[in-house]
UniProtKB/TrEMBL annotation:
Residues 475-510, 512-544 form the EF-hand domain. GO terms for biological process: guanosine tetraphosphate metabolic process. This is GTP diphosphokinase. It comes from Prunus armeniaca (Apricot). It comes from the Eukaryota. Its EC number is 2.7.6.5. Its main location: plastid.
Amino acid sequence: MELPSMELYCPRHRLRLLHQEPIPKTHHRTVRIVPGTVTLQRCCTQRIRRLGFLKTRSFLLEQTGGKMVVELVGAFNELTERMGMLSSSGSQLLFKALKLSIPLLHALPLTSDGRSSLSRALSISLLLADLQMDAEVISAGILRPVVEAGAISILDVRNQIGTGTAHLLHESLRVMKVPSKVDVLDDGSAVALRKFCLTYYDMRAVILDLVLRLDMMRHLGYLPRYQQQSISLEVMKIHAPLAHAVGTNWLSLELEDLSFQYLFPHSYLYVDTWLKSHESGSKPLVDVYKEQLLQSLRVDPLLAGMVVDVSVDGRYKSRFSTMKKLLKDGRKPEQVHDVLGLRVILEPRSGKDMAEVGESACYRTREVVRSLWKEMPHRTKDYIARPKTNGYRSLHMAVDVSDCGKSRPLMEIQIRTKEMDMLADAGTASHSLYKSGLTDPEEAKRLKAIMMAAAEFAALRLQDIPSMNHEGIETEQSQSDRVFHLLDKNGDGRINIEELMEVMEELGAPGEDAREMMQLLDANSDGSLSSDEFDLFQRQVEFMRNFEDKDELYKAVLNEKLQIADSSSLIQVSGEDLSRRLGN
């Protein structure tokens, strides 16, 4: 049966092309030209590819199966990219958890704060990935909202995903109930509860609970004020110090600041206003200095000969920490020196004298810093020449960043190699335990040993070690290959229609969606997908997800600048119209 003809136009050259549906996906096919026109194959190919992409995008957004696969592939890629190196067993575990949870999360109602259950689960899992947690913990984070909603039992998780993930879910639910063990949450009971968590629970389950608390604190605005304060007090007393105890310092700082904001809103406003008074223009001051230093380091010829990579991280002192220094320590505002902070991480060139080159690179970096800002010698500390007793090594310095007559607090800068940074992170565990209320050195060491043993056991069970080639050199599988091999179950190097239909059925989508998706993605019409064809599909998925992320970002910026709230009738009407046009 002959398919209907379809005319395509190339506006730039006003050429009319005639071809048959379905639209060819590669330039290897012959395009028939209407008599009297000129053949411009490259222009035609680009036009055909654009139309093919738009049709593919339409399918992926409108069909249940297409949307599920996009979410599966997109979430898996983003998680594994943030996790870094991941073993094949870890990849399979994470992929299974996503396949099981995505259709169940779609069926759940919106959360109390107005988000979709899928959005909440992905937010939790991405936070865990940023903390470099293993595949079991991230799988438990994805499945936690499903278990909480009663859509699946922990027994089902054990049977379908694995014992380790089920154990973490069970443990995290127990950790969640720990605050209810005391009637009055004073300082003494808070310390006791933190010790209890560190002693009797899997540390990974504790970290999962902390991430859940952070996600909740980020979306606490819908609750009445008394509930906001009650939850924030609990987080400030128990969870923020606990986060510091297990080494997740940035998580601890954010929990403190969010709790501070809800417990003492007026004090928070004063501190926040004071910190922002040091800004100049619309860009955060720490970002301005970060980019200035990074640019100077990258163009320095001496440093370029010593290192293969250099990075600069910037941070503001937390609002809560600033308040403590101003009130508890009795300091004046001009005496709070570490409001701004930068950390320079250097990766020295490999060789026999790599450690010595790294040290030289640190000192060269200090010279570059001195060329940019005025150093305050009395605050300079050389922990490279004179390491701390725990082995900590780094250069610390403070610089005056005041300009144009405007006074600003001193900015602290830490300079270290990548190896020094890794050792610093590993060596802070005991110190963190002390700051969290554990003052007995032997007890701190014992709890640290428990934490390390739990992490090592998890890695051993998952075999989360980089794969080695025959020469013992680490190899890293690309993102596209990783997903492709998980879908290619028979290992023949292609994804056939049966394998695609199986994934669709696992996601709860009709099998017919798989046939339509295969037809759209199968460029050479051989009835299967090669790794190249699947790679093109993944680039389309990434392209679409980037647009969705940017739309949310632009919405937030415009809302702030134009002072338009979602509750306004104009936004509601426009949103409804947009939803109808997008078919949501």
